[in-house]
Backbone:
């Protein structure tokens, strides 16, 4: 795994290309146009510069083992999608990466999660700093009951940043989240006045404002209409140039459209009849959707299962 | 019939009413209205009666003059009114910060599965139901005599603070609980500490609910006579000038006047009751105003 994210990201120079179908490809379930394909980059040659890695990760809620033995690598400046049926532990795994699972009483992990090689669960880790660097966008837009401006400024303020111009910071974050043009004239208005899709982009802007390194998205478009969803997806293609993105989605087409790599989870019954989330396989999205190694993956992505 | 039928076979085919509202529906509605009027009618009658009774004495003297046990014609309730206001202020000062802090702890920090926290929770609910006279006994034994503070503004306000504390805690907890979890999550995910999240997100959103609950709890305290009688708060002809000062309060003064036999005193009691009611209604109106003004939608 060498540092070579330039080549793996060449398709980003043409963000639209990643979203459209090349004429030569036949339309159908397996012709899903995966980023990296449209621009001609062969995923097999692309490399992964690991930002987050999990080794033998198991997540427990009390005595219950919700997810068992997960090994994954999340590459820098890549979008990794976590897909799978409900209750397979995708969101549980996602919440481990910014230690939001710590907030659930009884939640704990076994195994290791590293962030740039650093053990994320080591006792000396500052959870506050983890959460700033590993941002999160939630399923339902959750703007604060404040003005649009204050929503963005909140993160820098609580982190005690001395910024020369908060106005510039707010503008930059909103611009990056492709929301500036829509809200620049009403920054002092309540964030609740925005539409659902705008609220979600505000939440992304809020997350960007604290300059994270990784952005976790937990079904960010699940409560949005198709147009807003497209905007969020376009935005992700934009953001991945500067951030590492991990997205949980129920929408397989979405995973195919936006992600570079895909991890497929499923829930398995053990010998005692308890359900545990398991990682079935993780690979380049193109491979997962066209030539998966595991028959369960094929069954799921082709809609025969789950 | 040529009209298209909207009904299954065997049911009536017409959409028009057959016999108006069934008797049962009407009866039920009237029972509900009857129950409601028990409260409303009582309140209206009581208010009207008190105002009529006290009307001759609803004058400037009532507010300007000090109470008297010999000259009812010109006696006022000034010391009782100021005493009540002092009492209200200091009760609020002791009880609101304490109650809110306790509520924050119980909602945001305490582990609800822990046995001690469950015991505390149940006991706060129980305390809210304890008769006020018991708090009077407590105040007399521990604050007035135990701490040697005597029948002062400090003793009175501390006793009333204890009386309303459980109510303030319960109201504040409800207000805090009404703040959606997603707001807390959003804040924490940005690298805010728990304290920052509480201070900058939870509390501002919960203020209306906490204020409303606290004001309603206070207005209950202000109307209380029993614990003050227990504390030995009596007839005082001067305004309080400090926490160590003796004082009297409206409920006490009203109670005293009603025990006098002369009609003028009865009128005075009614007039003072009107003043007390005006204070209570004003407080409740403030509570309703705050609630309506700051209602949040999520």
Residues:
């Amino acid at each position: 795994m060498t540092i070579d994210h330039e080549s793996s990201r060449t398709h980003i120079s043409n963000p639209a290309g990643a979203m459209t179908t090349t004429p030569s490809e036949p339309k159908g379930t397996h012709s899903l146009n995966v980023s990296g394909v449209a621009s001609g980059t062969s995923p097999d040659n692309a490399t992964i510069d690991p930002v987050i890695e999990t080794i033998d990760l198991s997540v427990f809620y009390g005595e219950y083992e919700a997810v068992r033995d997960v090994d994954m690598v999340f590459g820098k400046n890549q979008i990794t999608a976590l897909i799978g049926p409900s209750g397979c532990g995708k969101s549980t795994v996602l919440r481990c990466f910014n230690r939001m699972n710590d907030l659930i009483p009884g939640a704990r992990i076994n195994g290791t999660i590293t962030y740039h090689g650093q053990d994320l669960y080591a006792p000396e880790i500052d959870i506050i700093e983890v959460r700033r660097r590993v941002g999160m966008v939630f399923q339902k837009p959750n703007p604060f009951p404040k003005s649009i401006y204050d929503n963005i400024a909140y993160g820098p303020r609580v982190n005690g940043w001395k910024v020369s111009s908060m106005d510039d910071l707010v503008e930059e974050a909103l611009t990056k989240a492709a929301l500036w043009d829509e809200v620049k004239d009403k920054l002092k208005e309540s964030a609740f006045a925005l539409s659902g899709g705008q609220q979600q982009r505000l939440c992304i802007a809020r997350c960007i404002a604290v300059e994270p390194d990784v952005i976790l998205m937990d079904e960010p478009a699940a409560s949005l209409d198709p147009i807003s969803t497209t905007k969020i997806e376009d935005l992700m293609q934009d953001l991945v140039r500067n951030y590492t993105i991990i997205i949980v989605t129920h929408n397989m087409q979405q995973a195919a459209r936006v992600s570079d790599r895909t991890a497929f989870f499923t829930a398995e019954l053990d010998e005692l009849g308890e359900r545990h989330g398991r990682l079935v396989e993780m690979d380049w999205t193109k491979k997962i959707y066209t030539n998966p190694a595991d028959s369960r993956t094929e069954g799921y992505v082709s809609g025969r299962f789950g | 019939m040529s009209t298209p039928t909207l009904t299954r076979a065997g049911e009536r085919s017409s959409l028009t009413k057959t016999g108006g509202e069934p008797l049962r529906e009407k009866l039920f509605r009237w029972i509900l209205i009857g129950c409601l009027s028990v409260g409303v009618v009582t309140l209206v009658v009581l208010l009207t009666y008190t105002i009529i009774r006290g009307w001759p004495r609803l004058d400037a003297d009532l507010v300007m003059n000090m109470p008297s046990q010999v000259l009812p014609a010109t006696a006022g309730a000034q010391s009782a009114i100021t005493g009540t206001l002092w009492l209200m202020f200091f009760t609020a000062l002791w009880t609101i910060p304490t109650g809110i802090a306790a509520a924050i702890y119980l909602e945001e920090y305490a582990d609800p599965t822990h046995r001690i926290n469950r015991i505390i929770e149940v006991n706060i609910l129980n305390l809210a139901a304890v008769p006020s006279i018991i708090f009077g006994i407590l105040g007399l034994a521990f604050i007035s005599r135990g701490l040697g503070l005597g029948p002062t503004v400090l003793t009175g306000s501390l006793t009333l603070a204890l009386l309303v504390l459980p109510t303030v805690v319960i109201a504040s907890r409800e207000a805090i609980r009404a703040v959606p979890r997603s707001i807390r999550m959003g804040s924490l995910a940005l690298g805010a500490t728990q304290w920052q999240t509480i201070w900058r997100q939870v509390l501002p959103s919960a203020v209306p609910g906490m204020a409303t609950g606290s004001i309603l709890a206070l207005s209950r305290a202000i109307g209380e006579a029993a614990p003050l009688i227990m504390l030995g708060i009596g007839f005082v002809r001067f305004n309080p000038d400090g926490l160590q000062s003796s004082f009297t309060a409206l409920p006490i003064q009203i109670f005293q006047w009603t025990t006098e036999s002369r009609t003028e005193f009865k009128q005075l009691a009614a007039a003072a009751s009107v003043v007390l009611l005006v204070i209570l209604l004003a407080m409740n109106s403030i509570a309703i105003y705050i609630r309506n003004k700051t209602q949040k939608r999520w």
Notes: Chain B has a mean pLDDT of 88. Chain B touches chain A through 22 residues (CB under 8 Å).
